């Protein structure tokens, strides 16, 4: 079976990044020490070569992840190995996750890439959730995360069929919460807005869908993916019938073109190094802050604060300032954790150096 790599998002401009003697393949799924990849000659299960093992032992961020473009090298023993990960255009990094584990960071505190080369982040927020309406603060947080990854966010107010009146008002509020971001109402049930999403994936772009449990993410992905015809889309030649593979892919080609990455990890992304993203989501507050009397104004009662003035004047919803404060605190907290880790690493390095100095001192004749 042969595949047309351009349908997986490959562009010839990336060819220059391939090490000599390797072929490109996209990572559809990873398992410990090995990956499922799709190359133009088919799907392969490949182990990591020495170069990848070495660099990822130093920094887990270098581990292959779903969405990566990899360079495959053919070995004499008759199989490919994953020789290198090509530079990523965008990446979702989590700080070793686990809001559950050790208060936000994993034991080693190092980052892990959850998905790479994502172009579009659909932020799904239900128009109605149980008895509640869309949660603007959650949208802000996920939009910040999307910007931080390098991808372009698009906000989807899902289950729009549940909303009878006032959907336009809700969308207007959401547009204020996500300045510069496209906002659409969609319903997998009625089909409203679903076709429109294909437009974002033109040119074989890659998307993820983020959002709370129950937002309708899986239903939407299914609506976009149709009924399993995607496999045939990639077939360029061969017998055309193809064999069905049982491997569950986390990189899903859509029949209308484009791809969706859907993994358990990407559904639980946390905040990690999010300061730039927060600034972009709160571009309005950032702009107002330029007029505050003090350059480091915390917009917390300082004299001459333009942000508080805008809240009082009704130009800036107070909720937005509260949301900004919360995300600032979280981002600062994450940053301080990262700093603490760096300090600890430095200390450990010095400990080793001192130990070696002592040892060499002792061995001196
Ligand atoms: N009314 C309505 N219900 C929907 C729509 N889309 C999904 N649902 C329902 O909402 C529920 C949750 O949908 P899922 O697609 O499983 O939500 P999810 O975001 O994938 O949830 P997790 O898998 O928990 O992350 C299901 O009962 C769906 O049938 C919609 O457009 N309109
Ligand atoms: Zn201020």
What does this structure look like?
The structure is a single chain. With 365 residues, the protein is of the alpha/beta class. It has 3 domains: 2-85, OB fold (Dihydrolipoamide Acetyltransferase, E2P); 91-268, P-loop containing nucleotide triphosphate hydrolases (Rossmann fold), CATH 3.40.50.300; 275-363, Probable gtpase engc, domain 3 (Ribonucleotide Reductase Protein R1, domain 1, Orthogonal Bundle), CATH 1.10.40. Helix content is 33%, strand content 23%. It is built from 10 helices and 17 strands. The protein has a 6-stranded mixed β-sheet with strand order 13-12-9-14-17-16, with helices on both faces. Helix 2 packs across helix 7 (275-281). The protein is globular and about 70 Å long. Mean pLDDT is 80; it is low at 96-109, 229-247 and 361-365. Zinc ion binds at residues 289, 292, 297, 299, 302, 305-307. Monomer. Associates with 30S ribosomal subunit, binds 16S rRNA. One of its GO terms (molecular function) is GTPase activity. Belongs to the TRAFAC class YlqF/YawG GTPase family. RsgA subfamily.
